[in-house]
Design brief:
The complex is a heterodimer of chains A (301) and B (331).
Chain A lengths: L6 E4 L10 H14 L2 E4 L10 H5 L1 H17 L4 E3 L2 H20 L1 H13 L11 E3 H17 L8 E4 L3 H5 L14 H8 L3 E3 L17 H17 L4 E4 L2 H9 L1 H8 L7 E3 H8 L17 H6 L3
Parallel strand pairs in A: 1-2, 1-3, 3-4, 5-6, 5-7, 7-8
Helix pairs in contact in A: 1-12, 3-4, 3-5, 4-5, 6-8, 9-11
Chain B lengths: L1 E8 L7 E8 L6 H12 L18 E4 L2 E4 L5 H8 L6 E5 L6 E3 L2 E2 L2 H9 L20 H5 L2 H4 L6 H5 L1 H5 L6 H12 L6 H8 L14 H5 L6 H15 L6 H16 L4 H8 L7 H16 L13 H22 L1
Parallel strand pairs in B: 1-5
Antiparallel strand pairs in B: 1-2, 3-4, 3-5, 6-7
Helix pairs in contact in B: 3-8, 8-9, 8-11, 12-13, 12-15
The chains are: A alpha/beta (301), B alpha+beta (331).
């Protein structure tokens, strides 16, 4: 059992407040049952999902320096639950911390914009952490195992990490980007069986989905097929953008590849919370495009 | 130390098989040293490309423990420490991806070279018609070419590129990194034509799915995805949202963040795909998705802007104003 309470500045992101509200719901349910305290950053804004940077590096850095500074004001680490938000904001944090040492002029420029608009300046005094890493590194897998009340035995879970979580930052402290194990270790902790397949570290195709749908869905389709062939009962992802392409668009993916798939896609906190005794409806498992019934039946719900 | 090399071997038009070779090697030996040892002492039929042995020529790229890299750059000790979990350490070797195998670890790189050629990878000839003296560049101008100039055309990025797997028209990260080198070169006088060329469909920069794999595997830190981003940024500065859907995607995203702090996804779909009601075919394509999302309770009834939306808007506007002014003063 943990002695001290973990507390984070919670960055909800766009998708968890829009098409994947079940993610917001399950992150809150999971942290509640684990006794992790979240202070929601109500004044935060979209990280740009890699698109700000295509406009300019300065735009991505300035907007996200503001996001990080909001957490710094609370003296808390910033918690993401989206691979893309993590990769973008985490990388901005790395870059600006480096600028504190190697490029003061650039940091002053970023902070100049923030001050002009009445925002707190970026100080480099906190950390940007994905929920996955908060579970693995801060809370600890053993402490989670202690709280498991419903082992997810016989459930074959295929991780889908998301590009930005593995490769968006220069350094990730908790995984090898080419051989990650955090998700699989979480699966083992809750009694499920990890499924290994190449797609787990590849791109879901979401960034292309608004204008190159065939390419995007072919990408998603190949990974889902591979996961099914490897014996997966479901995909589990720490990224709601991956979830959009793998779950919300799965009917279109099926059309593009000409094959029925029907593979449920769970958000990471949904899976963990199920094992801790939270009910499926509290986790919004009834609000997926691909029915999660087969998973729940396998678990005896 | 004893190490087992598991090598994916293949003849043209036949299915691959894995062959194992056990070697006694030093942890400081490179993977290329080990492949040479296999070829010279155990099995002369093993085929792989090699040349300089020193991360300069780019010949020996292959998939080592699942990612494309140079056999001469990686060594046994770090590979085993990083990837092996077996009692007798194992190292897996496979040919590069996205290119057909000729034999074993030798792939046919024809499409790789053809795609490089497609971006017109030479400083424009018109600018060269002054024979009297050299083309002078300031150190600052030259420094813009340093990172992309480091490319050794090894093919590692192309091998891992997720966009190449689904889009045979996409020229690939190596070609677009070179394309940026041309765009950034002060001696080239075809910048506008190049940007137009690289902006076409999804063969150029918009084919990139931002998977970061090219950045991740590049042995020379060329960061092709970053270079693709810089070309996009040049294109975005010259175009509006009506140019194409890929450009509208970018413009609308920033506009929506300015409006609400967070993105209103319903508006994003309508404005990007439906082009604010102007693209009927696009709008119709959204109908099944919209109904599906509505039916499963995934379409939010309302959008709640961030409490900081106003501050974010003026912050973005002041950065945009600054960028526009500095672009203006440069041109």
């Amino acid at each position: 059992m943990r002695s001290s309470t973990l507390k984070y500045a919670y960055f909800p992101g766009c998708v968890a407040q829009g098409a994947c509200r079940e993610l917001d719901q399950s992150t809150k349910a999971l942290t509640k049952i684990l006794g992790i305290e979240l202070v929601e950053l109500k004044k935060a804004s979209c990280c740009g999902s890699g698109t700000f940077k295509e406009d300019s590096q300065l735009l991505e850095d300035t907007v996200n320096a503001r996001n990080i500074a909001l957490a710094e004001q609370l003296n808390l680490p910033l918690l993401t639950h989206c691979s893309t938000c993590q990769g973008v904001i985490g990388h901005v944090d790395e870059r600006l911390k480096d600028a504190q040492i190697n490029d003061r002029a650039y940091l002053d420029q970023v902070n100049g914009f923030l001050k002009k608009e009445g925002c707190s300046p970026y100080q480099g005094s906190t950390d940007v952490k994905h929920l996955l890493w908060a579970l693995v590194a801060d809370y600890g897998l053993e402490a989670i195992a202690d709280r498991v009340t419903r082992k997810l035995s016989n459930l074959n879970c295929a991780a889908f990490y998301g590009c930005y979580l593995l490769r968006g930052q220069d350094h990730i402290r908790y995984d090898d980007p080419f051989k990650p194990e955090s998700m699989e270790n979480v699966f083992r902790t809750v009694g499920a069986t990890p499924i290994y397949y190449r797609g787990r570290t590849q791109c879901c195709g979401w960034p292309l989905s608004s204008y190159a749908t065939d390419q995007s869905f072919k990408m998603a389709g190949a990974h889902i097929q591979e996961a099914i062939a490897a014996g997966a009962d479901c995909i589990v992802t720490p990224c709601p953008l991956c979830h959009l392409n793998l779950d919300s668009r799965q009917p279109e993916v099926e059309k593009v590849i000409g094959q029925k798939l029907g593979l449920p896609v769970l958000h990471l906190p949904q899976l963990v919370a199920l094992a801790l005794g939270v009910s499926p409806s509290e986790l919004g498992l009834d609000r997926h495009i691909v029915s999660t019934r087969s998973v729940l039946e396998k678990l005896g719900f | 130390m004893q190490v087992v090399f598991k090598i994916v071997r293949q003849n043209q038009d036949s299915s691959p098989r894995v062959e194992s070779y056990t070697l006694d090697v030093e942890s400081s030996n490179t993977i290329l040293d080990c492949l040479n040892q296999i070829k010279w002492e155990q099995d002369g039929t093993l085929a792989f490309r090699k040349n300089c042995r020193n991360t300069i020529c780019g010949s020996c790229s292959m998939r080592i423990n699942g990612r494309s890299t140079l056999a001469c750059k990686e060594n046994v000790g770090s590979e085993v420490a990083r990837f092996s979990t077996t009692e007798i350490p194992e190292i897996t070797i496979a040919p590069m991806g996205n290119m057909p195998v000729i034999k074993d670890l030798v792939v046919d790189m024809q499409s790789f070279w053809a795609n490089l050629k497609a971006v017109d990878p030479y400083v424009s000839t018109a600018a060269r018609q002054i024979p009297e003296r050299e083309f002078l560049q300031t150190p600052e101008e030259r420094s813009k070419l340093d990172q992309t100039g480091n490319c050794i055309m090894c093919g590692a990025c192309y091998s891992e590129c997720n966009a190449r797997e689904v889009n045979p028209g996409f020229v690939g990260p190596h070609a677009l990194a070179k394309a940026y080198r041309m765009v950034a070169d002060s001696r080239d006088d075809q910048t506008e034509a190049r940007l137009d060329h690289y902006n076409q469909g999804t063969d150029g920069v918009w084919g990139c799915t931002r998977c970061y794999l090219c950045n991740s595997v590049c042995p020379m830190e060329v960061a092709p995805m970053d270079q693709i981003g810089k070309i996009k940024s040049e294109i975005l500065a010259r175009t509006d949202g009506q140019t194409s859907r890929s450009i509208r995607h970018r413009k609308v995203l920033i506009d929506l963040v300015k409006q609400g702090g967070w993105i209103d996804e319903r508006q994003f779909g309508l404005q990007v795909v439906g082009n604010s009601l102007k693209d009927l075919k696009g709008l119709m394509s959204l109908v099944p998705l919209g109904l599906r999302m509505l039916g499963h309770g995934k379409l939010p009834a309302k959008f709640e802007p961030s409490e900081g939306a106003k501050q974010v808007r003026s912050l973005i506007e002041s950065v945009q104003k600054f960028k526009a002014e500095s672009n203006h003063s440069q041109s």
